[in-house]
TrEMBL record:
Keywords: Signal
InterPro entries: Ig-like_OmpL47-like (IPR058094), Vgb (IPR051344), WD40/YVTN_repeat-like_dom_sf (IPR015943)
SUPFAM superfamilies, alphabetized: 3-carboxy-cis,cis-mucoante lactonizing enzyme, Tricorn protease domain 2
Organism: Paenibacillus lactis
Stretches with biased composition (Polar residues): 683-693
Segment forming the signal sequence: 1-31
Region Disordered, residue ranges: 678-702
Organism classification: Bacteria, Bacillati, Bacillota, Bacilli, Bacillales
Protein name (record): Streptogramin lyase
Keyword flag Translocase: no
Length: 930
């Protein structure tokens, strides 16, 4: 018998928690406030949105197994290494200074390169280590494509100066080849073939052929596309054999065109409705891609495209050919690609099978992109490149999520929330009085998509409402100037788009009053194009007639120069229109359009802002709260006194409780706001943890049933602001939602917990520990036992006992055969000793905690002339038959099926040349064959 005990460390929880951090920040001002307010210490409210968000993938091998490399967006972005055959996450690595990755490349030696913002990272499939290679080209902020050549050199394309670089792994140096096309911002895609680097350009489409040895550049003219006057982004480039596949995306175009590099000509066909970022690698003379939600195969010999019969509702986000040796439905090689949410899509064209593997990548807290208070008092958030939105309830201190794209703005009308979604300027609505409903087969979906604005608009960054309508201000598409004012009427479900309200400027400020919409602008347009205007404007729009009434440039006292962005529009109780620009707050008389109040808060600031507006919020106390110049600031509009709170943020709102809620990267914080003079709270809160069952219900101090922990907090002063708990010794914290924490999985646990009151007093962290083992030892039967086994064979006994937590209890393993004990030290059981038919071998073992495991092995013993012959030979070898002539005679009779003669001879020789015991077994076996 083989007996092994292995201890592992892992923690698996049935609860879903959001990671919560408590960041160190500059302390806000205290009771000496010039505006008679007291601001407490920031309190962490956790990460509102945590999800898997993936742009692409790459494929390689580690230790002889196929793996997928993919990066989950977050702060930081996390590289995930996944064993595809087992669909198992092998390891993760944070990418310092990166929150996303758009490109990877695997060199011929298995080295993986990852692009993260402006940096390149290198991962070794041999040592399993990650290196930070640094910034590829100083001044470039994004890397959009990576490819390697035969020598292992790495090439990449960048933004905002449309450059190509090379990294030489032998010299560990970067080479800057310069801008590929003057006036363009993106090398959005890159490919390599036969010593030439191909660069796909945007925002206006070009393809540049770069000789990396000489640095010479030559443009490859792109063929005409029917119905397309201006070529959009060359969003994807893939070199496969003699062909270059180019994906054109933008201005309503999603087309794949193919260039024959050997003949120097573009093929005739244009594949409109192309989906995804890449075509597949070549496999058995074919390349696969998605067109109109169907997987197509391009034959590289005939140049013909055929439908594979497999559908796919999205597109390939990079792909690779992988073997699944344990899945008979996936013979040979299977095409694998990743989805945005982390699922792996599998396509086997030999069997015609399509499968989906569950996501195993680790979710990350998502960068907060928008933050607003909803009509129900909850704080709603949107994440960058997110498929989820977050809702935080300040009363219960709980987070929830709902399906939502990347919202650039959040606003409300009545009980409805409106989300301005990037890309394509989509508007979605969430009814805060109804439950979330995403099942398309059921009525009352919530949230819902209302419309796409069109008119080359891409990012709805501001919104306001009035007289039953919602108004949006937008940023145009890449390479475009001229945003739009969009008026939506929920009653009729109609909308009007008014582009170029202010020539070549985007709308980043909106306010409504008395039938008029007041707006303000940024001179910036979409990415990839320089502004043509030099100063931001304000305008007045007649909401009834849909006509611009006026446009003006405010004369702002104290401004060093005319601002490039004016935003944050809001009316005060006296009807003055307040706005923000650079480091200045000012109020305009809407009748005279003159600035009547202003305050330079942050002197010397110029050219601040691009799209994200400065926010102005009126508190119930009559004060004006703002994130002017990215700094939380409070202004008394009567005295024009102000106070800087020492907090850097570009997103904040005011809760119904009067407190400030703001975002920093992936996390939300709250600043308690109170009046000066209120009694100062210096008493620490108290938190108690109750564990059920109170005492271990297993042996040796182990729990064997699920453990429930309830946290109870108390504070005599300002009250509890939040209670938090941590599973990693206080490195990361999760907001306690009030529901008991139930731990069902085995492990050694330490729960750390604390509370923070509304005055910012933080309790010293406490902790409790317990051990849970709810499963008996794992019994691993090492021998292969067929369902039917010959009576002449032995049943081999070999098993291993493992218990990952409390350990296998000594001397507890027991074996029974058909309910009768047998020696657990036996290595085999001769089956000729057992009657023919079905038998059950049972193994029992216990762990230290007292859990028992039982493993049954059922088999059937059958007899045959062959097994009878083998039994004679076995007895002869054991000496139970001591005469070779008799043994040969019996073996011959068994082989020929002469059972009666066989029995007669055995009976005649029993006790003579055949032992009595052996004779009995032989007669029993032979009789069964009569």
């Amino acid at each position: 018998m083989i007996l092994g005990i292995k201890q592992l460390k892992k923690q698996l929880l049935l609860i879903t928690v959001m990671l919560v951090g408590f960041a160190l920040q500059a302390s806000p001002a205290q009771a000496s406030s010039p505006i008679n307010k007291q601001f407490g210490e920031p309190v962490s409210m956790g990460a509102p949105i945590q999800q898997i968000a993936i742009f692409e993938s790459a494929y390689g091998q580690e230790d002889g197994r196929d793996v997928m490399y993919t990066t989950v967006n977050g702060k930081p972005a996390m590289l995930n290494v996944i064993d595809l055959a087992d669909n198992k996450l092998l390891r993760t690595f944070p990418l310092p200074d990166a929150d996303s990755s758009w490109a990877k490349a695997v060199a011929e030696d298995g080295t993986l390169y990852i692009a993260g913002q402006s940096k390149v990272y290198r991962y070794s499939s041999q040592t399993k280590e990650l290196d930070d290679l640094g910034v590829a080209i100083p001044g470039e902020t994004s890397i959009w494509g990576l490819i390697t050549d035969e020598q292992g050199n790495l090439y990449g394309g960048t933004y905002p100066n449309a450059k190509v670089f090379k990294f030489d792994p032998r010299t560990e140096t970067f080479t800057d080849y310069g801008t590929m096309v003057e006036g363009q911002g993106y090398v959005r895609s890159i490919a390599y073939a036969d010593g030439i680097v191909y660069a796909g350009i945007g925002t206006v489409g070009h393809i540049v052929k770069l000789n990396p040895v000489t640095g010479e550049k030559e443009e490859l003219p792109i063929r005409d596309i029917p119905g397309v006057s201006s070529l959009p982004f060359v969003y994807g480039l893939d070199a496969r054999g003699d062909y270059l596949f180019a994906y054109l995306n933008g201005n309503g175009t999603t087309a794949l065109i193919i260039y024959d590099m050997a003949r120097g000509v573009w093929l005739d066909e244009v594949y409109n409705g192309y989906g995804g970022l890449d075509v597949s690698p070549e496999h058995e003379g074919k390349v696969y891609f998605v067109q109109n939600r169907k997987v197509q195969a391009f034959d590289m010999t005939t140049q013909q495209v055929t439908d594979t019969g497999l559908a796919y509702g999205t597109g390939f986000r990079s792909s690779g050919w992988v073997r699944f040796p344990n899945d008979p439905e996936l013979p040979g090689e299977t095409l694998v690609t990743i989805q945005f949410g982390g699922k792996a899509a599998l396509f086997n064209f030999e069997s015609g099978i399509q499968k989906m593997l569950p996501a195993v990548a680790e979710g990350q807290p998502t960068l907060i992109q928008a933050l607003e208070k909803g009509p129900d008092g909850k704080i709603y958030t949107s994440g960058m490149t997110s498929a989820l939105g977050g809702a935080f309830d300040p009363v219960t201190r709980t987070h929830s999520t709902y399906p939502m794209g990347q919202a650039e703005s959040i606003g409300s009308l009545g009980n409805d929330l409106y989300f301005g979604i990037y890309p394509k300027a989509e508007i979605r609505k969430l009814d805060t009085t109804k439950p979330i409903q995403t099942d398309p087969s059921k009525p009352n979906p919530n949230p819902v998509s209302l419309f796409y604005m069109g008119e080359d608009q891409d990012r709805p960054y501001v919104q306001t409402s009035g007289d039953g309508k919602v108004y949006f201000g937008t940023i145009p598409y890449y390479g475009e100037l001229g945003g739009a004012l969009v008026a939506y009427d929920p009653a009729s479900n109609t909308f009007d788009v008014h582009r170029q309200v202010v020539h070549n400027q985007s709308i980043v400020g909106l306010a409504y009053r008395d039938g008029k919409v007041y707006g303000s602008t940024s001179i910036r347009g979409g990415l990839g194009i320089d502004p043509t205007e030099s100063e931001a404007k304000m305008f007045v729009w007649d909401a009834v007639s849909g006509v611009k009434l006026s446009e003006f440039t405010p004369d702002i006292p104290g401004a060093v120069k005319a601002p490039i962005m004016i935003s944050g529009l809001t009316f005060d109780q006296d009807g003055l229109l307040w706005a923000a620009a650079d480091g200045i707050l000012f109020a305009v008389d809407p009748e005279t359009q003159e600035v009547v109040k202003s305050k330079v808060i942050y002197p010397g600031v110029t050219d601040y802002g691009m799209w994200r507006p400065i926010h102005l919020r009126w508190g119930q106390d009559g004060l004006l709260y703002t994130d002017l110049y990215g700094k939380l600031t409070v202004l008394d509009p009567k005295t024009m006194e102000h106070e800087a709170l020492g907090i850097n943020t570009a997103l904040f709102t005011l809760g119904n409780d009067g407190n400030i809620y703001y975002a920093q990267e992936t996390r939300m914080y709250m600043i308690p706001v109170s009046d000066v003079g209120e009694e100062e709270d210096t008493q620490l809160p108290t938190t108690e943890a109750t564990v059920s069952p109170e005492q271990p219900d297993g042996q040796e101090g182990w729990h064997v049933s699920p453990v429930t922990v309830t946290l109870s907090a108390y504070d005599e002063g300002s009250g509890i602001a939040s209670t938090e708990y941590s599973w990693d010794g206080g490195q990361t914290w999760t907001s306690y939602a009030g529901s008991p924490l139930q731990v069902n999985e085995s492990g050694r646990y330490e729960l750390t917990y604390r509370s923070i009151d509304k005055a910012g007093n933080e309790e010293a962290a406490k902790s409790i520990q317990w051990r849970l083992d709810h499963e008996g030892p794992f019994i691993d039967w090492k021998s292969a036992v067929p369902e039917v086994i010959s009576s002449s064979d032995d049943l081999e006994i070999g098993f291993e006992l493992r218990d990952e937590w409390s350990g296998v209890a000594s001397n507890t393993a027991s074996l029974t055969l058909d309910g009768e004990p047998i020696n657990s030290d036996s290595s085999s059981i001769p089956l000729f000793r057992l009657p023919l038919g079905q038998h059950t071998l049972t193994i029992r073992a216990s762990d230290v905690a007292g859990n028992e495991s039982v493993h049954d092995i059922t088999f059937t013993i059958e007899n045959s002339f062959e097994s009878l012959e083998k039994l004679v030979q076995r007895f002869a070898e054991q000496g139970w038959i001591d005469n070779h002539g008799i043994a040969n005679s019996l073996a011959t009779k068994a082989a020929k099926g002469n059972v009666s003669s066989f029995i007669d001879q055995v009976e005649a020789q029993a006790g003579k040349h055949i032992s009595t015991e052996a004779a009995a077994y032989l007669i029993q076996a032979a009789t069964a064959l009569l």
